[in-house]
Amino acid sequence: HPLSVYIWEAEGDARDVLIFMGISRYFAGFPLSRFPDPAGSSDGRIDYSLVSTSLNRYNDGMQTETSIPQKLAAVFLDGILLAFHQSDMGIFIIQIELEFDSRLDVQRLQRAFEIVLDAEPVLGCRIVPDPRRPFWERLSPGERANFLVARDETVYMDFLTAPLDPCVEPQIKACLWQKNGGDRLLIKFSHVAGDTGAAKEATARIAAI
To answer: Rounded CA gap, 148 and 173, in Å?
Structure first.
């Protein structure tokens, strides 16, 4: 069954406590922003003014212009987690399920999930299991689809139990179910791309967009 994630934000200076099933706890601090930021910022984080510019381009029906390389080197832990994934030792997916008591803006949410594939370049890549050294390769526009609106609970549950192949798909996908009484959003995050902290960070960036 796909992994479930529960995040408790501790008070004061204590680190967040991540309660979940899987091997992520052995790789605490495995960051999402471990590649040079395409915006060139010194701290490796996206410039949200550029995200706003990208959003405006999407509003105008244009594609985001980025200078992201087509190939990115994988770090050591990427290779380790890829090996675990390929060995069928478990399902290396982190899932975050969010409940809302109101309707979300579907079009804006879809654009946010598209933009985050550029805001965090690794999320818009597949990992290539090269025997010499794995590397990340950017997905083509036709391979980047990562947002689904479920017409009913059956479609939503099918998404919940579906695998995510980090060698083929974007490293983050989502499904929105607009049920009676509110919306339910399920975010599926590849554990090969990062740990629960990275999944939380990606979710925060999508919310900021």
So the answer is: 8
CA distance 204 to 209: 9
Number of C-beta neighbours around residue 60 at 10 A: 7
Identity of the residue numbered 142 = G
CB 209 within 8 A of CB 116: yes
Q: Give the CA distances from residue 34 to residues 72, 75, 111, 194, 198, in Å, rounded to whole numbers and listed in that order.
A: 10, 8, 24, 10, 10
Mean pLDDT, the chain, as a whole number?
77
- Given a cut of 90, whether residue 150 has pLDDT beyond it is yes
Stated pTM of the model:
0.72
Q: Give residue-wise pLDDT tens across range 43-83.
A: 434 444 444 444 444 444 444 445 789 999 999 889 988 99
